[in-house]
Amino acid sequence: MAKRLKPFLAGGTFNRAGWHALAHLPTAGGAPFWADLQILRQPLAFTRAVQTSLGPMARTVIGGQPQVLMLSATALEAVLLDRDRVFSAKGGWDSLMGALFPRGLLLRDGDEHRHHRRLLLPSMKREALQAYVQRMVAPIQYTVTQWLQAGQLPGLGLPTMRHLALSRAADLLLALHDTAEVRQAEHDFGELVEASTALLRLPLIGRRWTRGLQARARLVAQLASLTQARRAQPGPDLLSQLVLARDEDGHQLQDDEIVDHLVFLMMAAHDTTASALTSSLTLLAQHPPWQQRLRDELAAEDPAQDLMSRLASRRQMGWVIREVLRLNPPVAFLQRQTLSEVEVDGVRLPRGALLTLVPLHVQRDARWWPQPDDFHPERFGDSNLPHAYAWTPFGGGAHLCLGLHLAEAQMRLVLGELLARAELHLPTGLLPQWRHAPITHPVQRQPLLLKPLG
Ligand code: HEM
User: Fold this and answer.
1) Which residue among 272, 356, 410 is best mutated to probe the pocket of ligand 1, counting the most ligand atoms within 8 A of its Cβ?
2) Of 169, 35, 192, 15, nearest to 98 (Cα)?
3) Ligand 1 centroid – CA 105 distance (Å)
4) Could you tell me the distance, in angstroms and rounded to a whole number, from the CA of residue 31 to the centre of ligand 1?
5) Ligand 1 within 6 A of 396 CB?
6) The model's pTM
7) What is the CATH number of the domain that holds 215?
8) How many domains does the chain have?
9) How far is Cα 262 from Cα 227, in angstroms, rounded to an integer?
10) What is the DSSP secondary structure assignment for residue 416, as one 8-state letter?
C-alpha cells in the first residue's frame, strides 16, 4: 500500500514501537486486518482459540494498531474499576469514535469526565426515569398494534427495533416528533454507527467514512438549533434538563457541549437497546416455553399497582433480559488505553498500550457459566454472580452505562406488551446467527413472525 495512504487507515500509521513493547505477550496474529476479520465474522471462535492456545492475554493487531486482547474477568475488573486512574476510555475509543462522537461522555477521562457525568446524572434520576417510562407506554402500545397487523418484522426485528428505539430516544431526549425529522435522524445515526467500522478513512475512497462525517454535520446542525429553541423555552425532554443543569459553582453546559453529549447519548441509547430487544425477541422465539412463563408472570400482575412497581415485579423477565445480555451483549468489546506502565493479572503493560476487553468472551466462559452457549435464564434466579465482572453488558466503574435503568425499563415494557398479545416464531428451520461488531446484530434478513393471541 502506498505510504501516503497509511495515515488515512483506521488508527493511522502502524505503531511499530508499540508492537515491540508488547513482545513479552504471546502473539495472536500480527497481519493487518486478520484479527478484525475474525472479530467481524467469528469472534467467539477466535477468542476461544486464543484463550486455549495462548492464554487470557495476547497481543494482536486490530483497527490497524497493536492491541492487547484481554479475555479474563479479572482483567475486566482491574481495567474498568481503574483504582489508580491509569486506564483511559478516551484513548481506547478515540480511533473508533473520536471523529464521529467527539467529547461524548465516554470520550472523556478523569476529573473532566466526572464533572460532565455529574451534570448529566440528574437527567437519569428516578423521577426523570419514571416520567420517561410513563411517556413510552402509549407509543409502545400503538406500535405493537401495528406490528401485529403486519404479522411479521423483517430482519428478525432489527430495523423495527431500531426505529422504535430511535423514535423513543428522539422523544425522551429531544421531544422530537415530526416523522420526517425522526426518519432523517435515524438514517444519520445509522450512517454514524456504520462509519465507526470503516477501515478506509479517506474522502471519496472511504465512502462509508465520508457518509458518516456528513451525517454528523447534519445532526450537529439539527441539534444546535433544537438546543437554542429549548434555551428559549424548555420542554419535557432530557435536552431541556441539560440546558438547565448547573454544577456546584453555578456553571452551565455550553451549546456545543450539549450537542456533543446529545449526539453520543442518542447513539448510546438507541442502537444498544435495539440490539438487546432484537436478541430478546429472537431468543424468545427460539424458546416458546419461556414465552409462556413470561405470559403467566404478566397475567399474575396486580393491575392496581403503579407502572414502575409492575415493571419491577417482572422477576422472570429480569432473568430473561440478563440471560439475553449475557449471550448477546450489544457492546461485545470494550476499549481502553494505558496512561502509564501498569500490571494486570501479573502481566506488565507499557504506557500507551491499547486494550481490547471482551465481555462477549467472559460472559460465555465455561469457568463462570455452565453450558455457556445455552439459553438458561434460571441461572440468574440466584442473585449472586459467579464473579462480579463475569457479567458486564453495561460496563463497570466510572463509565458504567448511564442509561442502564432506562434501557431495562424500556425492554420490560416492550416485551410485556408484545408477549401479552402475540406468540413469537421463527421461519421453519432458521437458526439465527449473530455478528458482534460494531453492535451485536443478526446476520439473517428473514422475518420474525408474530401470531396474535386469541
Ligand atoms: C441495552 C442497552 C444498553 C447497553 C447494553 C449499553 C451498554 C453500555 C456500555 C457497555 C457502556 C460502557 C462502555 C465502556 O465502558 O467502554 C455504556 C456507556 C454509556 N451508556 Fe449505555 N448501554 C445501553 C443503553 C443506554 C441508554 C438507553 C443510554 C442513554 C439514555 C446510554 C447511555 C450511555 C452513556 C452516556 C455511557 C457513557 C457513560 C460514561 O462514560 O460515563 N446507554 N453503555
Assistant:
1) 272
2) 192
3) 10
4) 32
5) no
6) 0.94
7) 1.10.630.10
8) 1
9) 10
10) H
